Amino acid sequence: MRVWRPQAFLAFLSVARAQPAPYPNNSYPIVNATNPGGLDNAISPPFYPSPWIDGSGGWDDAYQRAKQFVSQLTLLEKVNLTTGTGWMSDACVGNVGSIPRLGFPGLCLQDSPLGIRFADYVSAFPAGGTIAASWDRGEFYRRGYQIGAEMREKGIDVMLGPVVGPLGRNPKGGRNWEGFSPDPVLSGIAVAQSVKGIQDAGVIACTKHYIANEQEHFRSPGNFEDQGFVDALSSNIDDKTMHELYLWPFADAVRAGTGAIMCSYNKINNSQGCQNSYIQNYLLKGELGFQGFILSDWDAQHSGVASTLAGLDMTMPGDTDFNSGLSFWGPNLTLSIINGTVPQWRLDDAAVRIMAAYYYTNRDKAAVPVNFNSWSTDTYGYEHMHGQAGYTLINEHVDVRQEHGMSIRLAAARSTVLLKNTGVLPLTGFEKFTAVFGDDATENPLGPNGCPDHGCDNGTLGMGWGSGTAWFPYLVTPLEAIKNEVLRNNRVVQSVTNNWAYSQITALAKQATVSIVFVNADSGEGYITVDGNAGDRRNLTFWQDGDELIRTVTASSNNTIVVIHSVGPVVIEEYKNNPNVTAIVWAGLPGEQSGNSIADVLYGRINPGGKTPFTWGKQASDFGPDLIYDPTNGALSPQDNFNEGVFIDYRYFDKNNATPTYEFGFGLSYTTFEYSDLKISKSSAGPYTPTTGQTIAAPTLGNHSTDPAQYQWPANFTYVRNYIYPYLNSTDLAEASKDPQYGVEVELPEGSTDGSPQPRIAAGGAPGGNPQLWDVLFTATATVTNTGKIAGEEIPQLYLSLGGPSDPKVVLRNFDRLSIQPGQSATFTADITRRDVSNWDPATQNWVISNYPKTVYVGGSSRNLPLSASLDLGGY
Ligand code: NOJ
């Protein structure tokens, strides 16, 4: 178990770890995918200098305005823009300093990906991993827009979401539910639509956690009660897997214009995420042409100069360790600029990137003053909570919810997945005796927000735990909603919500004509442990003795409907095969309208159309490599070798011929669908051309004095305790640095301070990567017919086989959600892009279309693909 707070290392001049010599000819030999054994102690090659923003891909206007703004700033003001003010120093979970001279109030950064954390009068939306089950671009966008609109009205500048890291390598990963799906294409489409929605509402989206943050255990360096000091885990990934799996949805987020990206706690190939020059400089800002800013996860910055040169643009929450009063940046950044260690263009670039995101999302027009305070629900209190300073009006209790509750109800119902139905569903409401079972059907006795950051599993599960949560304005329970249905028709409804009251459960189950059992499985962020689960799940069984509950009910009731609220898959093979289980419904983490949403589905007002965004395995071991729960490398970084490569979730099951309980993409409806008539048309896009040429030189905006006297504390300054300011404590720089090693020569990575024009990256060229990757090479159409008796929604899915010996059997590439009347047909139309048919080639550092034959498949799930056609790649 982790004892909270990682070590703080101040060494602002330290250059992280010794970097190996750069590789010749720009070849970055990250371990070859065909040599899985080779990932042990993988290294991350250096890449410098950190690319500067160029305004490409629709960012030019924002870029120009940002340059103009930053040109007016003093050095201290630039530093203020990049450095957080410290944990709990201001109203939001993260805040950067203000620029009073220009009337700029600073920036407010706030969790979470599913609504506003630590605020009253806000909505609690379905979690990312739940909305993913809607497979509906409109739902993704609308949810993003509505969360963004709520953030905007509370005065938030940067929303700390959406999430595509973790992707969901293993279903036990504690925070998988914050993201969308272990499939990169479903995640990529969901994140792109979310980013657009959030930013159209006038708030900067911060896509996180970059990258390979696939488990909670050992995500940060720290001292553990039973294990002593253990350094941060290293996710060791080969280049092909990086591109074809984990980076893929980040590319989509960048292409959609995400204004910010949060670097993650973990190491990647043994280099700490927020100072990893390869993943930040080369992949994100170079190849993906990211125009916005990289901000650190909270205390994920572990160095000053090293992280600056490796591309970090903003440090959060600004202090080295919560409330240490010290910062790797702040005064140390000021100092490293005036003593010439960090070139001014790098700081200018960081500031311009931050302001470009601000203008790109129209924050200059959309901003309202912050009107809540994360640290108190009181109306009056301290503006600077940690420093206990500035007693004032801190919470105006602005109700920002509008009519979002109605969309939330519908979105959660449309994301509900019907896994099994022998015909009992939909219910009529006229069932003679309805019995409801399970603690998961009812209220948390401590209140819907009674456990800090939802760190408990009491009552119905509407979201997981940790920073990825929001406060419920209310939580409609399943029991309330079901009672309403039944009482409307004057029938009988009773419940037992104590999961261990076996005799009462049995007695009630015997009387019932229909039994509805609510069970759940929870997980969350690693700083909270619930029932022995330190963030990550320890197993894939139900919580609160849910398995025993189902067994007890089904022993006495032959008409049992199992409703699951869970963060991901649970082992349910037994219930699939149990004839007394007449239906299984996965409702995910539905948010505030939980009861209403599930009642809409159970009673047939909404015909379920959701499809599972992950595979349900028969046992935990079917999912491949387990998480690392114990240190594997002494006090050094546990080495987490992603030896399975691109084979996670359904790709892993397919490769191993393992039969899942329910496959990825599966979901039933109250009607039925048939597929026919696949046609492929080919475009005239032509061959791919790599990006060539050079960037401009790094712009330097304005001058600054190198005289330390200019950067001392202003006279008569009222200092707030532990607040991070940009000023120096002394005109003696060694003294100001507080670093006993100050002045000791350190070798900076080669090229890291070079602001001259740089070669452009072949696979790059615009936000998201080389624009030709999105050329549409083919368009597929197919007919989907509703062969049942009621209207329904079907999600046709398009998969590809890329044909090579190291390719997955099939990979998802596109989908749609069609509403079809009984007896009618609709046309599914799906584009196939160049990226869709390509593989990443580590040797040429680019996407290539292999010579292997490629086949398109269309159908209703990853294992139900009745239509197929081969692709003619000639000319591409
Ligand atoms: C740490 C979490 O990893 C991140 O997702 C969150 O945004 C920050 N804490 C701020 O709460």
UniProtKB/TrEMBL annotation:
<dbReference type="InterPro" id="IPR001764">
    <property type="entry name" value="Glyco_hydro_3_N"/>
</dbReference>
<keyword id="KW-0732">Signal</keyword>
<dbReference type="InterPro" id="IPR002772">
    <property type="entry name" value="Glyco_hydro_3_C"/>
</dbReference>
<dbReference type="InterPro" id="IPR026891">
    <property type="entry name" value="Fn3-like"/>
</dbReference>
<feature type="signal peptide">
    <location>
        <begin position="1"/>
        <end position="18"/>
    </location>
</feature>
<dbReference type="InterPro" id="IPR036881">
    <property type="entry name" value="Glyco_hydro_3_C_sf"/>
</dbReference>
<comment type="pathway">
    <text>Glycan metabolism; cellulose degradation.</text>
</comment>
<dbReference type="InterPro" id="IPR013783">
    <property type="entry name" value="Ig-like_fold"/>
</dbReference>
<keyword id="KW-0326">Glycosidase</keyword>
<feature type="domain" description="Fibronectin type III-like">
    <location>
        <begin position="794"/>
        <end position="862"/>
    </location>
</feature>
<dbReference type="Pfam" id="PF01915">
    <property type="entry name" value="Glyco_hydro_3_C"/>
</dbReference>
<dbReference type="Pfam" id="PF00933">
    <property type="entry name" value="Glyco_hydro_3"/>
</dbReference>
<dbReference type="InterPro" id="IPR036962">
    <property type="entry name" value="Glyco_hydro_3_N_sf"/>
</dbReference>
<keyword id="KW-0119">Carbohydrate metabolism</keyword>
<dbReference type="InterPro" id="IPR050288">
    <property type="entry name" value="Cellulose_deg_GH3"/>
</dbReference>
<dbReference type="Pfam" id="PF14310">
    <property type="entry name" value="Fn3-like"/>
</dbReference>
<keyword id="KW-0325">Glycoprotein</keyword>
<protein>
    <recommendedName>
        <fullName>beta-glucosidase</fullName>
        <ecNumber>3.2.1.21</ecNumber>
    </recommendedName>
</protein>
<dbReference type="GO" id="GO:0009251">
    <property type="term" value="P:glucan catabolic process"/>
</dbReference>
<dbReference type="GO" id="GO:0008422">
    <property type="term" value="F:beta-glucosidase activity"/>
</dbReference>
<keyword id="KW-0624">Polysaccharide degradation</keyword>
<keyword id="KW-0378">Hydrolase</keyword>
<comment type="similarity">
    <text>Belongs to the glycosyl hydrolase 3 family.</text>
</comment>
<dbReference type="InterPro" id="IPR017853">
    <property type="entry name" value="GH"/>
</dbReference>
